[in-house]
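Q: My labmate handed me this sequence with no annotations at all. I'd like to see what the chain might look like in three dimensions before we decide whether it's worth expressing. Could you predict it?
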Amino acid sequence: MIVNKANLLLRFLMEVAAIVTFGIWGYSLTDSGFGIPLAILFSFLFAALWGTFAVRDDPSRSGRTVVQTPGTLRLILELALFGAAIWMLFSLGYSIPGWILGATILFHYIISYKRIRWLLKQN
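A: Here is what I predict for the chain of 123 residues:
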């Protein structure tokens, strides 16, 4: 399966946007001095889930995995994490960035239909 490099760049930027969003949301949870640790914690949580559970030989990633995951479960994880990032943006009052991230994610998955078909077959 050939993966378009421009789509991989888009995917990477979406991941970065989601990690930053998780951090901002974590920071916003408190007015005390725990904002920064919570920002780090929530960003790390996203990165850990994203990087740990993967489908072996996924061409949109390194192909390696820590915990081999069925394709359907990986797709659900991706959609849940991106969906959480969109929800977080809206809950923070950042509706325009929320719409932009949501539209970008939708566009990415539409043009990644071959990968989605591949994921659904990896069980």
